[in-house]
């Protein structure tokens, strides 16, 4: 349930989003960022994604930094801002990344065009991020 107490911020109000609102925003876009930790420090990677039954699916290659973090907890973030109107929203998901190896499970995924890779090369590793925590904020 969203926190109905609006927090004044400059000219607008910052409001916490509930889970349903966060998932609604997740369905609006297909581009986000995955954050991992590397020996050199934090790494943030842009990805396209698909929402599937309360989880996120991303597609990558087996040799990528993202693939190296399968089995670990990752952070995933999306947002949308209108600088002119000074408003926007953001959603942060924290959860475990696992691979999808079952061909039937892959065949049952939703609109696969959202998972078509933009980057060149073969991208045949499908990763599911199962949320442990979902938070969102709306600035109006």
User: What's the gyration radius in Å?
Assistant: 16 Å
**Number of distinct beta strands:** 8
**How do the strands line up in the largest sheet?**
3-4-5-8-7-6
Q: Order of SSEs, N→C?
A: EEHEEEEEHE
Structural class determined from secondary elements: mainly beta
Structural key phrases:
single chain; six-stranded antiparallel β-barrel; mainly beta; 140 residues
Textual characterization of the structure:
- By secondary structure, the protein is mainly beta.
- The chain contains two helices and eight strands.
- Strands 3-4-5-8-7-6 form a six-stranded antiparallel beta barrel.
Could you give a quick summary of the protein structure above?
The chain is mainly β and 140 residues long. Helices cover 11% and strands 52% of the residues.
